[in-house]
Amino acid sequence: MPKPGNTKLVAARVAAGYRSQEALAAALDVTVRQVGRWESANPPWPQPVHQERLTRLLGQSLTDLGFTPPTGRVETSAPRPGHLAAPRGTGSVPSQGRPGIHPAAVADHYTSAVIAHRGLYWTVAPSALHPSVLAHAGLGHVLLQETAGATRQRIATALAETYLLAGRIEFFDVQQPERAADTWVRALQAAGEADDPLLGSAILAHTAFIPGWRQQHDEAAERMTAARTYARRGPASALHLAWLDAVEAECETRCGNTRTALHLLRHAETLLADGTGPGAPEWLNWFSPARLAAFKGNTELMAGLLPQARDTLLGALDSIPSGEDKQKSVILGDLAAVEAAAKRPEEACAYALRALAQLRDTWYATGMERVREVRRALMPWQHEPCVRDLDDQLYGWETTVSALVR
Prior knowledge:
By secondary structure, the chain is mainly alpha-helical. The chain has helices at 7-15, 21-28, 32-38, 48-58, 105-120, 126-145, 149-173, 177-194, 197-213, 217-232, 238-254, 258-274, 289-302, 306-319, 325-341, 345-361, 365-377, 385-394, 397-405.
């Protein structure tokens, strides 16, 4: 397969929501041919009038976007004010520097740490794991400059997964969506360097959560279209395609389209029941039939299908594998929400207290937000003893300080 062109610019364009060269050209007030030249394997240095527009629109420096300054010239443009800088100790995916310094085994060693981080995510506190993941990304940048060929490609793949994990921590564990957006752009750039369309699909689907949770339906839908396009180049496993359905269903649910979401979830169930096709990559360890049931239970809750939601979520709770404690707090929170909607405050408080106990062991901002939503739903019963007991736990010293710090 021929080496793609300026993958850094392509990745930044897609991550910013411009699915086509035509869309970016319109936003920059340039021709499509000009964008095509910039996205080629040897992009020309932009004219000064275009430098500022590119960096402001895409939020990265020109070198981060894959441009090389002409000899004797330095870059003067900067990302738009207020844009998040790269994680400390890292930058954009670099062009190949001094290749061939390291043996092929260096890719095995680097990837082994990525695999370890993949497993540690489920139980290690995000405040402890996140710095380690970012430091490993910094090492990956160095190794990209000092390797070549298949070894460099494997390093780029591992770096893409590292950034994907860092973004997951930022988005789901500590609720910093803007920082996660920046990190996932770098993940997409690394996946482009590796020419790994399935990782690209996974990263793009993660970026859809950001507009989806903000109820920005059209932007979320565009990112999911891009994710599915990359998945077709895979080929993708049934698990991967079912997860794409689940992500899109969550975005539709948060935008109020529960009927569409339930249709997507039924399609995902069919895919998993069939089970044919290629196997899933090892890095796709955040999805399973139990997690699909958790997605479905939340959508049924939002659709007002309370008996169905209760049954689905109880099934998900029973089947979730041991060690996936973060997801348990979310399921317990949704079960509490079902009981609150059914006007059963004592049952709602019991599930919410179980979720809080889980969160004390394994912090997960998404799980805590579910509990807070339940507490808001319990306002009509706030003077009941069960709700006051919940408040004692929800606003205890340890829980309150932990929530503020994290």
